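Hi support team,

I'm opening this ticket because the web form for multi-chain structure prediction keeps timing out on my end. I have pasted the exact lines I submitted so you can reproduce it. The total is 699 residues across three entries, so I didn't expect it to be a heavy job. Is there a limit I'm missing, or should I split the entries? Thanks in advance, R.K.
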Amino acid sequence: MSWDLFLLLLQASVTTIVVSVVSIVLGFLLATVVCAGTMSSNTLARGAGRLFVSFFRGTPLLVQLLLIYHLLPQIGLDVPSEVAAVAGMALCTAAYQAEILRGGFGAVPKGLMEAADMCGLGAFATFRRIRLPIAVRLTLPSLVSEIIMILKASSLVSVVGVIELTRMTQDLAASTFLPLPLYASAGVIYLAINAVIAGVGTVLERRVARGHA
Amino acid sequence: MTNAPAIRVQGLVKRFGKTEVLTGIDLEAARGEVTCLLGPSGSGKSTLLRCIAFLEEATDGFIEIDGAPLGFALGPDGDRMRLPPNDIRGVRSKIGMVFQQFNLWPHMTALGNVMEALVTARGMSKAEAEERARARLAEVGLAERATHYPSELSGGQQQRVAIARALALEPKIMLFDEPTSSLDPELTGEVLNVMRKLAEGGMTMVVVTHEIGFAASVGHKIVFLDQGKILVEGTPGEVFGKPRHPRIDQFLDTYLDRGAAGLL
Amino acid sequence: MTFDFALVLENVPNIARAFGVTLGVWAGAVVFGSIGGFAIAVARRWGPTPVGWLLRAFVEVIRGTPFLVQIFLLYYGGPFIGLSLDNIPAGLFGLSVYAAAYYSEIFRTGFEAIPKGHLEAADCAGFTRAQTLRRIVLPEMTMLVLPAMVNMTILMLKETAVLSIISVPELTLEVSAIGTAHYAFVESFTIVALLYWGLTDLCGRAGRLAEARFSRYRFSHS
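Hello R.K., no limit was hit. The queue was backed up. Here is the completed structure from your submission:
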């Protein structure tokens, strides 16, 4: 396998990274809303949040992507396949991240909030200064795993026509008859990206570890 | 107002679902008085303390702090009515609380824990807050531990930081909920010494504890709770001296069992 | 936009057959995967060190790369090294390998979570290694790993959908085909999503039921 082929794979992995990062960020924003819903005292909001989480965690991402890809044009949204792909991945990861956040908020010891209450911090300050920072620290390892999951899951957007790493490998394998080295190279690139994410995660976790209970 | 007791509890009832944890508590604590709440587990002593802190809302009855009603007051039509949040906040700011589990915020240093409410809730400047926080930490003997995180401190040190955190807000009353129960025996002394000093300085204190020795030597008043009621109330001499209430005898036997009952 | 679910209903027999393939591949991968995963976990814990390294590398590679890339490598790359598999065997094999790597991690954490004292007690009582494994480690671990196993097993069901890409005639592929034939994609994928959703929900409920049943055998830590 030539160096040129490998360069093409590297180029395509930029798309993989961009699609993943955009999905993760959009998914996180959506997840805060969904999480607020599932933790809400309002029955309707809680039900909607739970239904969202249940559906997007209970069905294959591939099916979600295909559904959204075909649904968007039918409801008059003619968007490029990249947008459909990002929409599908963001919705899916939002469901997972919402559950991670809910777990994190739930794991903040009640006593820490009571202490804040006794110190007169008030509801908003208690959330901003105590509950949120501790929940973020508690969820950091799970969020890093979720980022790695999404990076791997981004390979599925190849089926809706986004030319990312997996799709590029597939196309090159078909034209060069070199599937073994090509797919192995793609695997190595995925491993390398994941190693970087995991490494950054470890550094972040170590940085906040000092402030752990 | 000025003659009002620091704490007055009247007819306090607390129910969790169908279980009545407190069945009508009446209690008064004068300014500068140290009240020790004793009793077997499940007797309601912690619940009573948490009601005085307004961490739990009593089902019925009234609490006054320095003559001001806390949480609920008798309305014009004779009904028990909830007071507006601002009133509640004002009265609660006179109360400091120390927890069994310390409850220091793990993402802030000792100094950060003590400064937090001064800056965020009291609107103090950072420099002013730091000065006060360092002074309080010095009082509990932790001046050189100011930049340590809770995870880097021993249990006894953490509890002393928690005391400094409460004191920094200049409360009129300090509540202690089993402050030494999560500590190794050799670490309880340093916390009890800080509390003893605080009592000598004239702080009004309510202490839920199993440290009978501390209660007997520092407490001005012992309140013994059993099954949600005050069983015996009096000076340490009255409560622990002979003749003793048989229930207290039994309590001392089961909760001390170290020959300490004989020392009293 | 019009929904014509009647098109999908006409194809109920096809869908049922495809659903059978999905269930079969899923069950096979779960069974082979958990057996393989258990073997990997045991070998990593009690086997010779170099074997442990190799297995660790294998698990890391499987967990660090997309399943789709793995299945492509197997299905399209396999013939070049004399491993020509049809789509169903390839799918079953690939999914089983994938499952084994993940299950092995669950078992590994399960092993680690068993208090050392329990093993020492078995040792003192004169149990052989095999007896300890069968009488102490396995029953204790069942309770420890059950929630993670249920999760992973549900994840496996969703992962079977990826096999449609190498033309395994399972649910997602079959329903896509109906969608293509009648130009009714949204209807077909809605149906298929609901089928998966129902099944994963059912599994989740069954898992919680099992956890509740087993929870009283759990040892308490404090």
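A quick check on our side: The two ends of chain B are 38 Å apart (CA to CA). Let us know if the file doesn't open in your viewer.
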